[in-house]
Amino acid sequence: MIKNEFFTFPATSPEKVEEIRLKIGDFLSGSRLEHTFSVEKEALSIAKYVFPVYNADESHLFDLRAAALLHDITKGLSLAEQLELCEKYGIDKGEFPSCAILHSKTAAYLSRELFGINDAVFSAILCHTTGKENMSVLDKIIFVSDYIEPTRKYEECKKARDYFYENVSKSPESAKEALDGTILMSLDGTIRSLLRKNQPIDVQTIITRNYFYKSN
Ligand code: DGI
Ligand code: FE
Ligand code: FE
Description:
single chain, mainly alpha, Hypothetical protein af1432, 10 helices, about 0% strand, globular, binds 2'-deoxyguanosine-5'-diphosphate, binds fe (iii) ion
């Protein structure tokens, strides 16, 4: 059993999650909304393996649900709107401002203002695109769910999904290694794809990639 270090805060209530579920359709639609519900389902599926190993109370499944439902809440906004929210919340817009990078940060702040999410949910939303060093279990589950949920059709996402479930089923102790290995695969896949498209890479993506490369 790994020490229960991330679950010392009060969990999101089931009522709050239902409130979020009712309102999220005002912000997202079509395939983006489908992706959101798929991330929620995937996060619960991952938690089935991971929560027992971390001795995590099941009430924290509602934190996962909240983070999954809200993680892309600002994904439909334009870059100008993202930048307005950065200004409003004092978010550093970074070296290469883009919706791809900024939506995770604006989503965390907007979700906190609209729904009063706890710090663990805030963190999982905030780092869901680039990851970070020392991610909590909740951060990791959301990060991995976002990449491997089955509406993503890329071959690299499918490979990461197979890798996670093959490894996590081996033994309960392998949950941490399976999560960390999948995060590394996901970051490698994202970096490769950004290079193919000649896109800038956020410095945090590189920092996180090297951190998981070393810890693997
Ligand atoms: O919002 P989603 O599409 O569900 O997933 P996400 O939040 O992981 O965002 C993925 C998008 O963000 C994808 O188009 C790749 C892009 N992205 C991820 N890391 C970086 C990045 N884009 C840039 N420019 N730099 C990065 O480091
Ligand atoms: Fe996202
Ligand atoms: Fe997403």
